[in-house]
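User: Once you have settled down, look closely at the record that follows, taking as long as you need, and be ready to discuss the fold:
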Amino acid sequence: QVQLVESGGGLVQAGGSLRLSCAASRSIFSFNPVGWYRQAPGKQRELVANIFTGGHINYADSVKGRFTISRDNAKNTVSLQMNSLKPEDTAVYYCNAKEIIRTTIRDYWGQGTQVTVSF
């Protein structure tokens, strides 16, 4: 088991920036990948970005060039730097970690942090 705690959400005007952080209760070295998802009202949860232990990164097309994900295995943290925010980025953002146990992939989720981008 692992607890993931997000922080850094809030209200920001369009064009502004926010930095989300996710702190894990134990080492994230074995989690592959770790990342961020978001869910807007009335919509399905979607992948924003994730990062593998080897450094490979995936970004949703809608955030490429604006968001940057990073992981610090020594500090057990995953961060998401969000620049040039748009109103359509408004959502609850969730930290996610995937762990392979034998042949099963286990998903861990944080409680979510609200990001609201105003016009």
Q: What stands out?
A: The two ends are 40 Å apart (CA to CA). The mean pLDDT is 96. The chain is about 0% helix and 55% strand.
